[in-house]
Design goal:
Blueprint: E1 18-19, H1 24-35, H2 37-48, H3 53-75, E2 77-81, E3 84-89, E4 95-100, E5 104-111, H4 113-118, E6 120-127, E7 135-141, H5 142-159, E8 164-165, H6 181-189, E9 194-199, H7 202-211, H8 216-229, H9 231-234, H10 237-243, H11 250-280, E10 284-288, E11 291-296, E12 301-307, E13 311-319, H12 320-324, E14 327-334, H13 344-348, E15 354-358, H14 359-369, E16 382-383, H15 389-411, H16 418-437, E17 439-442, E18 446-451, E19 455-462, E20 468-472, H17 475-480, E21 482-488, E22 499-505, H18 506-522, E23 526-527
Antiparallel strand pairs: 1-2, 2-3, 3-4, 5-6, 5-12, 6-7, 8-23, 9-10, 10-11, 11-12, 13-14, 13-19, 14-15, 16-17, 17-18, 18-19, 20-21, 21-22
Helix pairs in contact: 1-3, 2-3, 7-11, 15-16
Length: 528
């Protein structure tokens, strides 16, 4: 108590106010000009003809937009206050947005070439509430980005003193599947703040590009250009035929066509390689305390952060060539993530989390994502599909072939029936292989599902992340004594693989539903 008998006045620490980098004016102006490209083109054409009318018209559109950029730069500020990220904007109409720091999942940034030249970045503040950023700060200096990250995560740790536990007691004083902030903080205190988990060399990216079909985008671009500019109508086929030598051997023509196809395939693969190098060059995956940070990009640099405890789903993808070269890619899903997004940082933090990794490094890297995860696919106790699953799918393939044969016969008698005959072995083989590729297992950490023939996908979710377990039966399932088991989390989407196990024996699916539900209830996160 003070001399006056009143309690002493405790002065709160002065909260530091942050503002955007001065280059925000430049990037906002460029963004406004890009959105108003049509008036700008008319202005340039008018200026070329000496007509000032269109210049005045463009100024009417561009002037207010550029003034808004200046106004936004002058009035936008942000600070960390009482466990909240507070963003203020506006003078006459004031907009104040508060985001609790414990909800902030990522503070990511994207840098194009101009950003990197000026040493700045566009920053996105992500939470687990949805697929869109809570706030976008265009633009901050890299020093401001690191300062903001430090303030947010320090404030978050101060606001969350309780331990985060996963798992249930195993009876020997330890937590099965323990994954706590308390233990993570202890580990962080006894180890370097930042540790390198994975660095992808150029050779891996080349192999991944050769195994990828990203180059098929080029076919779409070429086809669109041909259609848009009506190149087929402009191409004189007869004149082109006159250039060719007469009386060419059919085998020679077949060889030329085959060579052309191989050249096209090579070009597409080179485009895929170029895409991987541009997107993932200088890839680094680091662990900073309990967060995983990804950075990559040759021209546009992306940096994304993923808290390990928010990872709900891990999916390992391998196509035929990747399996031959013993490579894999890893996708993850976190709370609030969704499919179909084009945001670069969001895409890297989920869909392209690890674009390529060798099989001998896979288990080690996955253990950094989930410390208690033992990833050994050869030791997973996979449960079989129903005994008659292959028979069911083969019969369906035969039925489809008969339908195509009947339709072909009526459209083009009698040769149209050959369509069904040609499809029959293809569909039967696909039915057999795709059914045998279905595999389901339950481990100490969660549920595993594998599917796919050409692209094999092996995905795992964890008991404490499971939101719902469904036992589903269609009339046809009941006829065959089968069922589908669906295990859902809060973030299905970016991994492009769901744990929906069809063709299980109905009794097995029902028992699994009950047991997974019990394990999910026992493994719910406990805050204390």
């Amino acid at each position: 108590m003070s001399a006056s008998g009143l309690p002493p006045v405790v002065e709160e620490p002065v909260e530091r106010l942050h503002r955007l980098h001065w280059s925000s004016l430049l990037f906002d102006a460029l963004s406004q000009i890009r959105s108003l490209v049509v008036p700008a083109i008319f202005a340039l054409l008018g200026a070329a003809r000496g007509d000032s009318f269109w210049i005045y018209i463009s100024l009417i559109f561009l002037g207010p937009a550029l003034l808004y950029s200046v106004f936004r730069y002058a009035t936008l500020s942000f600070r960390i206050s009482h466990g909240q990220l507070v963003i203020k904007q506006g003078l006459i109409f004031r907009n104040v947005r508060s985001v609790p720091v414990e909800r902030i999942q990522n503070i990511d940034f994207v840098q194009n070439l101009l950003h990197r030249a000026l040493g700045v970045a566009e920053v996105r503040v992500e939470t687990a509430a949805g697929s869109e950023p809570e706030a976008t700060l265009r633009v901050l200096s890299l020093e401001q980005v690191e300062r903001l990250r430090s303030e947010v995560f320090e404030s978050r740790h101060a606001a969350e003193p309780r331990a985060f536990n996963v798992g249930v007691s195993d009876g020997v004083g330890l937590e099965a599947g323990s994954f706590s902030e308390e233990s993570s903080a202890t580990q962080a205190a006894n180890s370097p703040t930042t540790s390198l988990v994975l660095q992808i060399p150029l050779s891996w990216l080349i192999y991944a590009g050769l195994a990828s079909n990203r180059g098929t985008i080029l076919i779409g671009v070429v086809a669109g250009s041909i259609y848009e500019f009506k190149l087929f109508k402009r191409l004189d086929i007869e004149k082109f035929a006159d250039w060719l030598p007469q009386n060419l051997d059919h085998w020679f023509l077949a060889g030329v066509v085959a060579l052309g196809f191989l050249v096209l395939l090579l070009i597409l693969r080179m485009v895929s390689v170029a895409w991987y190098i541009l997107r993932f060059s200088n890839y680094r995956l680091e662990r900073r305390n309990d967060d995983l940070r990804v950075s990559c990009g040759l021209t546009t640099k992306v940096q994304a952060t993923v808290p390990r405890r928010r990872v709900q789903f891990i999916s390992v993808h391998r196509n035929l060539l990747m399996r031959f070269w013993r490579l894999a890619s890893v996708r993850i899903e976190t709370a609030g993530s969704g499919a179909g997004h084009d945001d670069a940082s969001k895409s890297v933090s989920s869909r392209w989390f690890i674009p390529v990794v060798t099989e001998d490094r896979l288990a080690e890297v996955l253990r950094e994502i989930r410390p208690d995860l033992v990833w050994n696919e050869n030791e997973f106790q996979f449960k079989p599909m129903a005994a008659r699953a292959v028979t069911r799918r083969v019969r369906f393939a035969v039925l489809v072939s008969l339908v195509f044969a009947a339709v072909g016969f009526f459209v083009w008698k009698p040769w149209g029936a050959l369509v069904g005959a040609i499809l029959l072995p293809i569909l039967v083989l696909a039915a057999i292989l795709s059914t045998r590729a279905l595999q389901y297992a339950r481990t100490e950490q969660g549920v595993v599902f594998r599917s796919g023939v050409l692209i094999r996908k092996t995905s795992m979710t964890f008991f404490e992340k499971i939101q719902s377990i469904e036992f589903q039966q269609s009339p046809l399932d009941r006829r065959w004594g089968m069922a589908k088991l669906s295990v859902d989390t809060a973030a299905a989407g970016p991994a492009e693989h769901k744990i929906e196990v069809p063709l299980l024996d109905a009794s097995l699916a029902m028992n699994e539903q009950v047991e997974i539900k019990q394990l999910a209830a026992m493994h719910q996160p406990v805050y204390r």
